[in-house]
Each structure stands twice: as C-alpha cells, then as structure tokens.
Amino acid sequence: MAELVFFSGTMDCGKSTLALQMDYNHRARGRGGVRFSRNDRAGGSRISSRLGLETDAVEVLDSTDFWDEVVSRRTRGQKVDFLICDEAQFYSPEQVEQLARVVDEIDVDVFAFGISADFRTRLFPGSQRLIELADHVKVLQVEALCWCGRRATQNARTVDGVMVVEGAQVVVGDVDMAVDPTASKGEGHVPLVGYETLCRRHYMRRVTAHGASIMAQRDQLLPFETDACLWRGSGGAG
C-alpha cells in the first residue's frame, strides 16, 4: 500500500539530505520517481543539501497540480512509483490534498520533507495540511543546535542581525551570514534577512548568536537573567 509520509524538522536537521538519500535508495531498487521542490537555496528546479549534495528537480509553482503531473507522465509511459517533495512547507493545502489523492487513487508513494513552523512559531499552511493528512509524520532524529548547545526547536528570522517576529511568512534569506546590527546603514541600504535555529528558551527571549556574543563581551553571565533579551539589538523593548 502506498503511503504519504511527512518528514519534519527545523532548519539544519538534514531534510534535503534525507530526501536525496531516499530518492537514491528507491531508484537503486528499480523504482521510478519524480523529484519536486520549491524555493530551494540553490535556485529553481533544484534540491540541494547544506552538505553539498545537489540534483535537479521539478519546481513547484502555484499552478502545479500533482495529480496532473503524475497522470501526464504515466500517460507518456514514464514509470512513476514515488514522489520526493522537498520544501513541502511552501506547498498550498490544495496541493497537499492532491498528493494524498495520488497516494490513495494511483498507489504512488509520496515522501514530503519540510519545516513545520515559521519564524513566528506558526504552522505553515502546507505543513499543517500534511500533519492532518499524512499516514506518518516523522520528526528527523538529527538535532539542529542552538548557539547555546541545546537542541534547537525554533526557526528565527533576523533583519540586519536583529531577531524579528513580524512580517511575511515567506521571505528568502541567508542562513550563514553574520551581521552587526549596530553598524551604520547608508542611504539606500537594503535590509539583510537571515535565519538561525534557536532553543525555545532563547527564541522566547530573542537572544540570537550575535546577541549572545555582544552580551558576553559585556561580561554578562550565563544563563541570562529574564531581562537579558532587552539589549538594544534583540528586537525587544528598551
């Protein structure tokens, strides 16, 4: 029996790496599949891992219909036994329902990979529908880490190095940049958006790696006091 399986986790927990590994394993056993992705870090029509693995994929658009994608390929004689669906948090709820229909009515396995919650700790619509419909929801066992060494459970967004909790749900940013929020911004400056993973404690206190570094330089002790998040670059009050 075909299944719809959702592999979920924070950034940096190896979702895309697992997607590529599963695609390889199934093809090695003679199964035919199609790789899908959306808004991958490497650009359109790609699935890429931070470990350096990368391959081609079909870019998912707002107009993509997974039922039509599978039916058209099978009509042309292409073997489609499974789908790899990376960055599934960016799919619409309707597209997730199409994936469920593909599993139930055409007997195609669907392996979806994505982040459950956004930088505001709100579920992505696509991820929410996957949680509601999937036969299995599996949390990846590779733990992303907060700067403090604890397990990271939240995805934080920064703008010019300062953590934010408001804004559009989907904004492309960098996960490897180090920005000094105290640096002067010239005329025409374009804010730089970044992302990092934090434990719940430091997400709630809005203390990013950069904020922790600033406080350490000021001889603050760890663990921080409750008001430690109120340094002027944390995005909090004060």
Produce the secondary structure layout.
Blueprint: E1 4-8, H1 15-28, E2 33-37, E3 46-48, E4 54-56, E5 58-59, H2 66-75, E6 82-85, H3 93-106, E7 109-114, H4 125-133, E8 136-139, E9 154-159, E10 162-164, E11 193-198, H5 200-205, H6 209-217
Parallel strand pairs: 1-7, 1-8, 2-5, 2-6, 6-7
Antiparallel strand pairs: 3-4, 9-10, 9-11
Helix pairs in contact: 3-4
* Shape field: elongated
Work out the radius of gyration. 20 Å
Number of beta-strand segments: 11
Largest sheet: 6 strands, parallel
Strand order of the largest sheet: 5-2-6-7-1-8
How many helical elements? 6
What portion of residues is helical?
A: 25-40%
Beta-strand content estimate: 15-25%
What is the terminal separation in angstroms? Answer: 57 Å
Computed structural class: alpha/beta
Low-confidence stretches: 226-232
Q: Report the mean per-residue pLDDT as an integer.
A: 87
Task: Spell out the helices and strands N to C.
Answer: EHEEEEHEHEHEEEEHH
List keywords for this structure.
single chain, 238 residues, alpha/beta, six-stranded parallel sheet, three-stranded antiparallel sheet, 6 helices
3D structure, described in words:
It is elongated and about 65 Å long. It has helices spanning 15-28, 66-75, 93-106, 125-133, 200-205, 209-217; strands at 4-8, 33-37, 46-48, 54-56, 58-59, 82-85, 109-114, 136-139, 154-159, 162-164, 193-198. A hairpin with a 2-residue loop joins strand 9 and strand 10. With 238 residues, the chain is of the alpha/beta class. The strands form three sheets. The chain has a six-stranded parallel sheet, sandwiched between helices. The protein has a three-stranded antiparallel sheet with strand order 10-9-11. Strands 3-4 form a two-stranded antiparallel ribbon.
